[in-house]
Amino acid sequence: MTNDDTTTTNDTEDVRDLVAQLVFGSLAAQTVRAAVRLRVMELIGDKERSAAEVAADAGARTQPMTRLLRALASLGLLREHTAGSFSLTPAGATLDPERPGSLTSLVRMFTEPTMLRAWEHLDDSVRTGDVAFDTIFGKDFFSHLKEFPDLSAEFNAAMSQASRATAAVLPHAFDFGRFTTVTDVGGGDGTLLSAVLREHPALTGVVHDTEEGLAQAPTTLERQGLTARCSLAAGDFFQSVPGGADVYLLKSIVHDWSDEQAVTILTHCREALPPAGRVLIVEPVLPEVVDAETAGLTYLTDLNMMVNVGGRERTRADFEEVCRRAGLALTSVTPLEQAEPFCLIEATAA
């Protein structure tokens, strides 16, 4: 066999491995879901524990638990030291709900059957442009959440966990000190705005969301000692946003909605914006051409927007267009290092 033949064979194997890895991705996700539901990481904690011990504490059988733990070790979430004895890796530790920086709610939400049902109909959404979730459940995603308080709370917690990296970076990425009041539109439990207010003591804030979205916000503000500097405003950003702020912040909001709906939300921000105010959008910004080396998961979140809520991820040109239609001028796009793939998109009154 020549060197060229060897290279061709190796390349073929790499291609097959890639496809197999992609196809088995859903199985890996369900493995992680099972680990969270069985509290595996919490039960192992900081110790090295045997599969038998974990199984007993989880109310499971030893042999199936051993198989689960070994699968988790193969995924890089556990380390098997000797046969049947395991400890957490740093990645596995993020699935312990008792640890700071836990991603447990994020895992629960994005492996939740309600969230995954629409993905079974991705091809239908591609053919028709319809939102698969709406077709399956007879209502939109956020209306569905209103009917299930536990699921709504899990969604809020997942969004809070997804905002932590941005919350660590955003307060230093923009000169908030020039302004007086920030309204976080669709701000959920207040995780992001709390980080901004902590770093800028002269600022006051408003978290604006639906009643369901704000359900956990009082706890967040009280924990951060911000109840005197931050108020809550329940409402519908399709109808209006609270006036009186000079910065309107929207993280992971615009991508949930169609262009028409995005323009409506941004128009309400524009209507409330004082002459020297700013609208800050925090979202991924797609390049004009896909770069597989740097793409990450953003194109999968784009498809998730398609099937579950009818939104989309956008390029800079897309953001410029929705801003223009809302009476705003996009002035800058700044990648948020340490919070990839998010960017800070700044807009002013046009």
UniProtKB/TrEMBL annotation:
Residue ranges of domain O-methyltransferase C-terminal in the record: 119-328
The keyword S-adenosyl-L-methionine appears for this protein: yes
InterPro entries: COMT-like (IPR016461), COMT_C (IPR001077), COMT_dimerisation (IPR012967), SAM-dependent_MTases_sf (IPR029063), WH-like_DNA-bd_sf (IPR036388), WH_DNA-bd_sf (IPR036390)
Methyltransferase listed as a keyword: yes
Keywords: Methyltransferase, S-adenosyl-L-methionine, Transferase
Domain O-methyltransferase dimerisation: residue ranges: 21-95
A Gene Ontology biological process term: methylation
Top-level taxonomic group: Bacteria
Any GO MF annotation of the entry: methyltransferase activity
SUPFAM superfamilies cross-referenced by the UniProt entry: S-adenosyl-L-methionine-dependent methyltransferases (SSF53335), Winged helix' DNA-binding domain (SSF46785)
Protein name per the record: Methyltransferase
Species this protein is from: Streptomyces durmitorensis
